[in-house]
């Protein structure tokens, strides 16, 4: 008589599904925890590295994805009856919520260009907008200039030759110089009340920008930037451009434009050479300036106004209401005062 096989023990074949479930639960929890640690440390250690550059730039969006993944891990843990997996998932979700809430508590709301108020005597008003060349109608640009009443207008992606035609009338009305450089896609309009300015591009890499040098020593040097964006495999060209901008921003200087990077990409200290980021100096976490297809809270703030020690910011705003004007960037506006 053939002996009947006894019950398979927990060490036999029937334990394999249990081991598989435990492996899935463990792996999911470990990945969720690792992603959280990565998200929290990236702005401090990975800002200039290829691939990680984008995760730092879109930090809020990355955090949102980590939180969503943790929710899925929690559901998996519940289905597999893994208590510690669910605990890990809850901890990650709470941590992501806190990481969102802290910047949100200091996030400056977008400003309506029509509501920009006059500033006091001795202030400097700076308008910046990457219009993606002529994707924004010149009438829209002229209207925004009239609404914000700037002393300095920086258009990081608007050729000087075009500006001398399309913006000639408003430049004449406001008594502003129009400056640029053939190997830069940027244009500067600057009030003649600040004195004359000339373009200096001797040390500027092609397509990084230029420096506008004042004849009046009390007026600021203006470092006008449109740094070339890094690609997914290399940030070398961008690093060359940001190093040039950092070397130029010192003393009585301002650096304004599209840096194709957040302040965390540029430097863990959120500085550019001898200059500080206006939003950071004001304790703000501004709305994202790019791309306009994302809500401001999830976008990357890659347009900046950096101030040297001779100036300090009083206002920095990302302007609302122009997401459908044609550009994939939102304009920025700053009011600066002389440092005491």
Number of strands: 13
CATH architecture of the largest domain: 4-Layer Sandwich
Q: Mean pLDDT, nearest integer?
A: 90
Secondary structure class reads: alpha+beta
Number of helices: 10
- How far apart are the first and last residues' alpha carbons, in Å? 103 Å
- The helicity comes to 25-40%
Q: Helix and strand string, N-terminal first?
A: HHHHEHEHHEEEEEHEHEEHEEE
Query: Could you describe the largest sheet, including whether it forms a barrel?
Result: 7 strands, mixed
CA-based gyration radius: 26 Å
CATH fold category name of the largest domain: Deoxyribonuclease I, Chain A
Name the CATH superfamily assignment of the largest domain: Endonuclease/exonuclease/phosphatase
Strand content: 15-25%
Report the top-level CATH class of the largest domain: Alpha Beta
Give the total of domains: 2
Q: Which strand order do you get reading across the main beta sheet? A: 5-6-7-8-11-10-9
Shape designation? elongated
